[in-house]
Amino acid sequence: VKKLANLMLGVTTSIGSFLEVGSISTAATAGAEFGFALLWAIALAGIILAILTEMSGRLSAVSRRTFVAAVRERFGIHFLLVPILAEAVIDLLLLTAEIGGAAVAIRLLIGLGFQWWILPVSALVWLVLWSSTFSLIENGLGLLGCVTLCFVVSAWLLHPDVATVAHGFVPTLPNRDLTRYAFFAVSIVGATVSPYLLNFYGSGMIEEESGESDLATNRIVAGVGMGFGSVTAMAVLVTSAVVLGPQRILVNSYEQAALMLVPTFGRYGVLLFALSLGIGCFGAAVELALNGAYVAGQSLGWTWGVNRKRREAARFTVVFSGVILASTALAMTGVDPLKLTLISVALTVVIMPLVVLPFLVLMNDPAYVKAHTNSPVGNGILAALTIVGAVLAVIVIPLEILGS
Amino acid sequence: MDVVRDVLDQAVVDRDGRAMGRVDGLLLKVSPRCPPTLTAILIGPSVLGDRIHPLLGRLVRAAEQLFGLVGRPTQIGFGHVIGIDREITVDMSISDTSVDAVERGLRTVVSRIPGAE
User: Fold this and answer.
1) Which of A117, A218, A357, B44 is the least buried, fewest Cβ under 10 Å from its Cβ?
2) Low-confidence spans in chain A with pLDDT less than 50
3) Are the beta carbons of A138 and A5 closer than 8 angstroms?
């Protein structure tokens, strides 16, 4: 039973990474504009995220510390300040975008302007965090997230040409719009590999009281969870490429993106799209708000956790409430959630080295992970990918902004 | 023992294992002809603020004064430290210190909302 619960942590984390507003919109847009050509980016993002979550789980299981706590202890407050400030800004933007995304999903279902749904969505996010234990959150989100498998069903039933799809897994340079192509590659990775997920997953391991005996399970959970997410995100891209691509429908709004499920599911297509988007965004919003409180509590040494009574972790409770309040206020100003998403996901890639490089030091320090240190090959690949990604992002983001 | 590596920024727990915060600062006694000695550990956001930027420390102090918080930062004599391992354990009870004044203040607010228990 515990292993099943662990698996749900993987699935829940992967919903927050692959099926939230950023990933769905980047995968849908990339499919509509470049066909299957960017499938490799989703696969790459899935592999990086699986490696990082496995590491994060291993750190928590062996040292009983999360990334944030370990960085403060190992490197001190000055060093911790840089990654957490960067993360705080991006997480606030992302939470705003997720609340907006969930509000857009309700608009697709019921109507009315999405601004009207921001307050109810935020209230629901808070209510879930106020009243749930960690296992209720992860099982609830994990089960609801299965709705997103409708994209996989759709991609299967659309019978895309297998050889062309397979070709998409080989990175190739396009003969047009190179900047935009590179921008989408960076965005897909950024939308998926959000730094907050690492601390969220590690904190989840501690909430679940996992220990060294759970290391094998942790490997499976990270692999299966991120596998679930990447296959679903690939299905979004494939569906979008097959349905929206040939009709030259560019994804400028969620109404257009919602059409992609219509050929397969008919009049239920928009409903399923809205449900998937809504659940993905809602799940990510819950995880982001919760992680804000995890970061505060762990870096300052408070009593933390959703498995505690709220009054016993009053500061923790106040922080997640405050984070939700701040994002709600930002969302109410009427920012376009789709634009906000595309900016924040690309920025994520820029700050990745600030998170991954200290993480690698911790994962090679026996004081934290005992004998379960990383392999040198894994260290090298991850460090190289992170730095290359960040450099690419620094080049591509200004070009894309100038271009549009 | 390397105090910066093994003491500073580590988690502090009381004798019953309750979280007291982290070592935000150290109090050293410096006297001529003697090596400096560690006399106390300090816990509190004002000390942490000082380490980041003196202005931030002053700001936190002003806020603490505004809310009438006294006895902060919490100073725990190094003699009270009974264990330095994964955490720093002290032989005191958290309720005898001012370290969780904010937590206690917020607790009265949070407790009023249904479902806090």
Assistant:
1) A357
2) none
3) yes
